[in-house]
Task: structure prediction
Amino acid sequence: MQTTLDNSIIFSGIGLHSGRDVTLTLKPAPENHGILFKRKDIKIGNPLVRARWDYVSETTLCTKLKNEDGTAISTIEHLMAALAGCGITNVLIEIDSEEVPILDGSAAPFVKQILEVGLKKLSSSSRIIRITRPVIFENKSGWASLSPYDRPEMEYFIDFDDCVIGKQSKTLNMSNGSFVKELCSSRTFCSNKDVETMRENGLALGGNFTNAVVVDGEKVLSPGGMRYQDEAVRHKMLDAFGDLALAGAPILGKYEGHKAGHSITNSLLRKLFSRPDSYTVENCSEEVFDVLPGSGVDLAELTAVA
Ligand SMILES: [Zn+2]
Result:
């Protein structure tokens, strides 16, 4: 079944990169509406931007969408992950600035309010994208792949210079509310040595120790330390899950990411959709619905929300 929210939800906060105050409202939407952003502050040109892989225009440190009139929405990945992780297929996202608020750096504040408001079932059936042949995208930084699998599964590997992060890997069955239990509370992170360079490039202007985990060698500079010993790899999985949500429907298959960022995951989707023999789009049966990331989510299993 397709779903939407039972009521509107308002979020206010600061944009991680822009440093601007922003208000974002999630509004219930009818069946077959999909996930659509609307820039309330845009008076000239089309203010609507579809949350889909082919609207991705930039992938430097976050995922940015742009429509044909140049209307953009950036840092969408944590919100997209929250929507996909809660199984929401239709929503209108109104926003009064270009960047989605970073909140605590994770997807948990979005998930918490979505689950508190609750979901509404719509009468049309939902669709899934079933991977039928492996697809891989690789560049000099890393690689990512999608392969046939009977449920949504993710596997990820990272390798960072700061030894408090270092090498981490994780495999996760994304069924049974795993996103809410295992991934959504993990926060974005960066190395202290990169902060100055990012700021010189007009990025991370809204970043601070409460909305990002800042690390320096063996130390975690943000108060309270890590939420999980492997919070970094969990967050990279959260990012990838949000970027994969731009496919337009849940993906039934296994995603593997090896030092894969936003750019590689988006390139993987572009490659997938250029190869019609690699996937099928199907109406979702009850059996498949039960293994999707949005099934079996439970607000009581959400922990570590700031
Ligand atoms: Zn992130």
